[in-house]
């Protein structure tokens, strides 16, 4: 990891540790105030706990033009992005996406769409619905490896992160508490519960929390829809296309709507927010991820609405190109932050819930 980014984050953390004005703002400050000195692993953990709500910056008396020139949200955002690049596997892909994210996402979607359009004849005989354009076997052969690769990549990356932050053995209580915090987006409400200042210095808002929840729950519903269709196909012999009142559609359509609305809201909020309170270098890559995820959801809804028309093969190629791009880019895009954030929350629960003391063995005389 870059030493200069860690040194600047360390300088600011030490000043914040002495001040303690923001102690109740979010999970970062209780974790920060537990330490007297900050190792690289401590700073990496703090950076991945931070949700960049910016409340601490607007409340701080030591921001520019003060000589301390504190900007903790920016310092932690830069360490956070650097940690993802350092731990990502293979590493060069992460650095390339952070630098050229929008172009990579756009070209990969179009490239894969052209590929799917070119091979659509594989399933053109005897298939129904989407399988008339691309056979089920072809879809499985393409998407199974594309789904498994990000899982392998993220597992390797998170193992490196866990080692870096000194994570130990995990108890069920650590996981349940972390999942509860993530489900409620607790840290985006700030310690006082009024929301954060992400879009505006003088106004507290829950807007960012709500759009994050829409994205998260929309994605989970879409994933559940795909899982339900897989089970129905292989376990019960019920093959697509499915009716609107089938489980895949009842899960997938609301999920797609939530995901589309959430990504639109997230993109709008990012354009309103001050770029100088985040990692400026990562802005383009983050926006590329948001647009890619939104296009996956929106193209899926359009494909469902127009699946019975002559436009279906082209729409299917675009949608599958977007989905395949999303899978392959997940370990290097902002999507990875959800996994790192959950790992950071679990690590924080380890610190908050110390292991029970073991009683010394009693030796009989």
UniProtKB/TrEMBL annotation:
The chain crosses the membrane at residues 101-119, 139-162, 214-236, 251-269, 289-306, 312-332. Keywords: Membrane, Transmembrane, Transmembrane helix. Signal peptide: none annotated. The keyword Magnesium does not apply. It comes from the Bacteria. The keyword NAD does not apply. This is Tricarballylate utilization protein B. It comes from Actibacterium pelagium.
């Amino acid at each position: 990891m870059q030493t200069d980014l860690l040194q600047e984050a360390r300088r600011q953390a030490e000043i914040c540790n002495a001040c303690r004005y923001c102690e109740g703002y979010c999970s970062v400050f209780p974790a920060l105030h537990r330490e007297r000195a900050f190792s690289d692993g401590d700073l990496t953990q703090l950076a991945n706990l931070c949700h960049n709500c910016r409340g601490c910056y607007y409340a701080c008396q030591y921001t520019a033009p003060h000589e301390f020139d504190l900007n903790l949200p920016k310092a932690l955002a830069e360490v956070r992005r650097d940690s993802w690049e350092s731990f990502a596997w293979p590493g060069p892909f992460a650095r390339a996406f952070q630098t050229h994210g929008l172009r990579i996402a756009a070209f990969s979607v179009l490239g894969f769409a052209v590929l799917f359009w070119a091979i659509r004849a594989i399933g053109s005989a005897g298939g129904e619905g989407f399988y008339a354009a691309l056979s089920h076997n072809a879809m499985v052969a393409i998407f199974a490896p594309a789904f498994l690769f990000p899982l392998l990549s993220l597992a390797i990356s998170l193992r490196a992160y866990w080692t870096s932050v000194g994570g130990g053995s995990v108890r069920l209580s650590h996981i349940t508490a972390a999942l509860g915090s993530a489900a409620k987006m607790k840290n985006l409400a700030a310690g006082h519960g009024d929301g954060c200042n992400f879009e505006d210095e003088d106004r507290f808002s829950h807007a960012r929390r709500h759009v994050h929840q829409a994205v998260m729950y929309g994605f989970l519903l879409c994933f559940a829809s795909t899982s339900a269709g897989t089970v129905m196909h292989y376990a019960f012999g019920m093959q697509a296309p499915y009716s609107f009142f089938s489980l895949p559609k009842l899960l997938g359509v609301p999920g797609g709507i939530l995901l589309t609305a959430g990504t639109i809201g997230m993109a709008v909020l990012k354009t309103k927010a001050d770029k100088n309170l985040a990692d400026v270098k990562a802005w383009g890559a983050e926006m590329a991820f948001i647009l890619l995820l939104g296009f996956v959801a929106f193209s899926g809804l359009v494909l469902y609405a127009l699946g019975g028309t002559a436009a279906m093969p082209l729409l299917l190629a675009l949608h599958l190109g977007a989905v395949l791009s999303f899978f392959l880019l997940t370990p290097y895009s902002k999507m990875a932050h959800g996994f790192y954030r959950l790992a950071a929350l679990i690590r924080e629960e380890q610190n908050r819930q110390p292991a029970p003391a073991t009683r010394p063995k009693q030796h009989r005389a």
